[in-house]
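Request: Could I get any protein with tokenized structure?
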Amino acid sequence: MNTSSLRPYYYYEYDNQKRPKITVCLLCNGDREPIPLSRGIAICSDLDMPRKKTGRQIAFGRALSAIKRGNTGDPMIRRQAVCARHISRYKREFAPELTDKERAILHGRKEAA
């Protein structure tokens, strides 16, 4: 598969101390009208120091894996993962149903609350 035409879109969910605890990567085709192909989610453990770079790498890898496998998988089962279930119940998702926030991000509008 040619991944050079894929464009990642990232966003973050923050904890009470304004640290990025959840990183989401949407992999899309197309620039003018992005078509979401997959979603990858990385959740920072309470024991780890949140780092955006690490979160982006993990989320991107999961989104790419969803495309290569052509399926959704890796259910969120850890206690910390409950905080991401408003986005998805899976760490990697093929052909995801977008949230309102994700639709706003892909269409260049300010993030929905």
About this structure: The radius of gyration is 13 Å. Residues 6-106 form one domain. The longest strand covers residues 20-29. The beta strands are 6-14, 20-29, 35-43, 73-75, 90-94.
